Amino acid sequence: MKFYIQSPLVFLCFICSILFLSSCGKDSDLFEIISEEQVDESEEILDSQNEEEDREDEGNNVEDTDSAIGGDNQKLNIIFDTDANNELDDQHALAYLLSNGDLFNLEAITVNATHLGGDIDGHFEEALRVLKLYNLEDRMDIFKGANGAFEDIEQNWNPNNFDGIEAADILIEKTREKETLIVAVGKLTNVALALRKDPELANRSKVIWLGSNYPNKGEYNETNDLSAVNYVIESGIPFEIVTVRLGSSMGSAFVRVNVDEINDRMPGLGPETMEPVPGRHGGQFRHFGDYSISLFENIGKDTRSLFDLVALSILKNPEWGTQESIPAPILVNGNWVDRPENNREITIWGGFNRDAILEDFFESLENYSLVE
């Protein structure tokens, strides 16, 4: 069969088609090579971005209370901030902390002064008294905090010299050394001062605060320094409120113990001291349990709530209370104002198991394991 080319133009198109197909074959190889190189480069860029994001996430993460800061098999590192000379619940909370060395590491005790407990020296001396009753006065340090309120101290702010600097500095130092929870059972002045001096503290710790009747106004720890409460809330530090709620069964005020229970369960509890320890109201004591009886005798009431104890007990067993995350409210003229559009959330604790908490308190002092 013969094939006739009827026109030079047709012939020319035929030749161009052959050349085009030939070049496409070569170009397709080149395209394939370039595509592979581009994919490899893109994967390297993506991997680098992912590594950078991971590093940022690690820097920004703060552990939840439920994760126990160091994992299920590690102890909680605690700074205990207390107005130790006010009433009697602070002393019992501190004794509970000192007796649970299998769960807690006590990094430091800081004290602050509230209206009914005298100046800072009285709070220091009462905290020291409890340490002596546990033979720990040479192993544990107490740091003096603020006498005054946060807003008054901040008016003439000098980061190198202010009321409460000793406590604020140790809060900063200890939270830089390791992951450490701040358990505050008095006014929040020391915590606010530490955040004022070192705002980065908000990214490396968490505050568990015993205070407030939220959503109702009032409560002793809150009203002792309203400005400190607002400053801590606005700082962004993870913040959990263990409510008091006087007159309600839904706050730590419900965890009440009567004098008969104290007289029956407390005699001889805790370690025996090498030397007798003088009590706040007189007398000499060799066991915290016996000092507890003296404190209750001098409080002049048949029953008393062990408020501060609850802030520690929920760390030991979160099921002894109920918790709820809410948009962080703010205090305005002493009243809580909800801010439902606020992206910052805090945790509110209530609904505490009175019997379980008190039984664990007595058992902890009976079978104590000293903190380190």
Plain-language structure description:
This protein is of the alpha/beta class. The protein has a single domain, classed as Ribonucleoside hydrolase-like (Inosine-uridine Nucleoside N-ribohydrolase, Chain A). 44% of the residues lie in helices and 16% in strands. The protein has twelve helices and 14 strands. It has helices spanning 8-60, 89-99, 120-133, 150-155, 165-177, 189-197, 220-223, 226-235, 259-265, 288-299, 307-316, 354-366; strands at 76-82, 104-111, 142-144, 180-184, 205-210, 239-242, 256-258, 277-278, 284-285, 303-305, 322-327, 330-332, 335-337, 345-350. The strands form four sheets. The chain has an eight-stranded mixed β-sheet with strand order 3-2-1-4-5-6-14-11, sandwiched between helices. A hairpin with a 5-residue loop joins strand 8 and strand 9 (284-285). The longest helix has 53 residues, at 8-60. The radius of gyration is 32 Å and the shape is globular. It starts with 7 loop residues before the first helix and ends in a 6-residue tail after the last helix. Residues 1-72 have low confidence and may be disordered.
User: Strand percentage, roughly?
Assistant: 15-25%
Distance between the termini: 105 Å
How does CATH name the architecture? Alpha-Beta Complex
- The CATH topology comes to Inosine-uridine Nucleoside N-ribohydrolase, Chain A
* Backbone shape: globular
Query: How do the SSEs run, as a string of H and E?
Result: HEHEHEHHEHEHHEEHEEHEHEEEEH
Give the spatial strand order of the biggest sheet: 3-2-1-4-5-6-14-11
